[in-house]
Amino acid sequence: MEYEVVIGLEVHTELKTASKIFCGCSTSFGAEQNTNVCPVCLGLPGVLPVLNAKVLEFAVRTGLALGCRILPFSKFDRKNYYYPDLPKNFQTSQYDLPIAVDGHLDIEVNGETRRIGITRVHMEEDAGKLVHAGTIARADYTLVDYNRTGVPLLEIVSEPDIRSAEEAKAYLEKLKAILQYIDVSDCKMEEGSLRCDANISLRPKGETKLGTKAEIKNLNSFKAVQKGLEYEAYRQAEVLDEGGRIVQETRSWDDARGQTVSLRSKEQAHDYRYFPEPDLVPMVVDPAWVEDIRRSLPELPDARQARLMKDYGLSDYDAGVITASRAMADYFDATVAAGADAKAAANWLMGEFSRLLNAAGREIGDCPVAPGQLAALIDLQAKGTVSGKTAKTVFEEMWASGKDAAVIVKEQGLVQISDEGAVVAVVDKVIAANPQSVADFRAGKERALGFLVGQIMKETKGRANPELVNKLLRERM
User: Fold this and answer.
1) Average pLDDT, stretch 211-238?
2) Distance CA 246, CA 214 (A)
3) For 402-446, where are the alpha helices, taking DSSP H only?
4) Which of 164, 183, 261, 292 has the most CB atoms around its CB within 10 Å?
5) Are 21 and 200 in contact (CB under 8 A)?
6) Cα separation of 338 and 330, whole Å?
7) d(Cα 443, Cα 434) in Å, to the nearest integer?
8) Are strands 214-219 and 249-254 parallel, antiparallel or unpaired?
9) CA distances from 178 to 110, 114, 155, 162 (A)
């Protein structure tokens, strides 16, 4: 039988505030275990929480960037459940009156644009972190670090509008980009500041009723999200084809084994016994304040992509790659502002720049080559001072030393030879030394030309102007 995959994502993102949501403890990552804590976030008797105003601002900012309605009246609730990483035995979250509802996010997969609905965006506090001696499913013992308890979170819940693992990955990539553009989260999945749980079910093609879903946890990267959902769709299809039924349960993605494993059954809906948080007053949001935040939003990825295509003639693909990261888009704009040709700047950023960045495991903000330096190198190449091949060598040296391109070119004598007389002498020498290749070329074998060009570049240590070399070779032969 042919099935339709139905996926909904619940994304939690930690906010970039200096202090926690209801107390003054630091949110810094990597501190010694159980040191960023106080009586409030540990839930000791007699303490009272106070909302961090920056959290509310970031929540409104996120809701607006995702096309949501900001509710004028919002409140916190207690979500009651017991788990070792939850010291109060309840989580302060939002239930029936979240801060933002009815949003959307547009994604493009295989040339098709689809709109994914966003049900809600709400604020809540994070729980602590369980450190397992082993895997989440098989551990000898587990330790608890409460540093993360009370770190402000936004939960962003999508509608079940996603129809493939590939679409889920595209949704997460776009959501991450938006959160980084509006500067509310660093979205570092490796540090847990962007986390995703996925709900997935299958139904026969043409059916409108939703199938029984499984929830997948422990998806620690975009690649894990895609692989986990692909596996789970295959598993559920296999069960259904064999006449079995899908059990509503929570499953964990085991990356080492490449499969999901059952954690616990969810046959009965969990009753969290929500009730309004009595220690926090409701929030009445001033519409004028909301509009001030709306006006402060930066140019978002889709608008920026459209601008790069319109203003600089970049292709849809190139503009999409450049604007997928705010840091990359900012670097591109700065490089062009420094005088670089836009298309050349895009090619450098998607080519050598990204290659060295990935090889070094660096963020763009840590790049040792400033936009103005890259623009100067692009200018040297455009003027013919250096060849394309030499420019790559110069760029690697700039990356290693931080020196300007012009300095490296001068120090290492890398100026391109564009003097026709000087190049002719080398061309004639190579032609004389390789009569068989010359004969092959005259017989129609174009590949022979490439060999001869290579010999000339070798003789000139890569400094001869390639276009001039090609022109003179053809003329002389």
Assistant:
1) 94
2) 8
3) 405-412, 420-433, 435-442
4) 164
5) no
6) 12
7) 15
8) parallel
9) 21, 17, 15, 18
In 297-325, alpha helices (H): 301-312, 316-323
Residue that has been written with the tokens 């960037």 in this structure: 65
Its pTM stands at: 0.85
Residues in contact with 75: Cβ distance below 8 Å, sequence separation at least 6, in sequence order: 94, 97, 276, 277, 280, 282, 283
Question: How is 208-263 classified by DSSP, letter by letter?
Answer: -S----EEEEEE-SHHHHHHHHHHHHHHHHHHHHTT--PPPEEEEEETTTTEEEEE
Q: Which residues contact 215 (CB under 8 A, 6 or more apart)?
A: 197, 198, 199, 249, 250, 251, 266
Cα distance between residue 339 and residue 371, in whole Å: 10
| CATH number, span 420-476 | 1.10.10.410
Read off the pLDDT of residues 113-153 as tens digits, 9 standing for 90 and up.
999 999 999 999 999 998 888 776 677 888 999 999 999 99
How far apart CA 128 and CA 34 sit, in angstroms, is: 9
Q: How far apart are CA 247 and CA 477, in angstroms?
A: 76
| SS3 category, 109 | strand
> What are phi and psi for residue 82, nearest 5 degrees?
-110, 130
**H/E segment holding residue 55:** helix 53-65
SS3 category, 390: helix
Domain boundaries, the chain: 3-289, 299-412, 420-476
Contact 400, 363 (CB under 8 A): no
Chain-centroid distance of CA 224 in Å reads 14
**Token output for 34:** 């159980």
First to last CA, the chain: 66
pLDDT digits (tens, 9 = 90+) for 330-368: 999 999 999 999 999 999 999 999 999 999 988 898 899
For residues 94 and 97, give the distance between their C-alpha atoms in angstroms, rounded to a whole number.
7
Q: Which amino acid is at 110?
A: N
- Closest to 70 measured CA to CA, from 313, 243, 273, 283: 283
- Spatial separation of the C-alpha atoms in residues 102 and 82, rounded to whole Å: 31
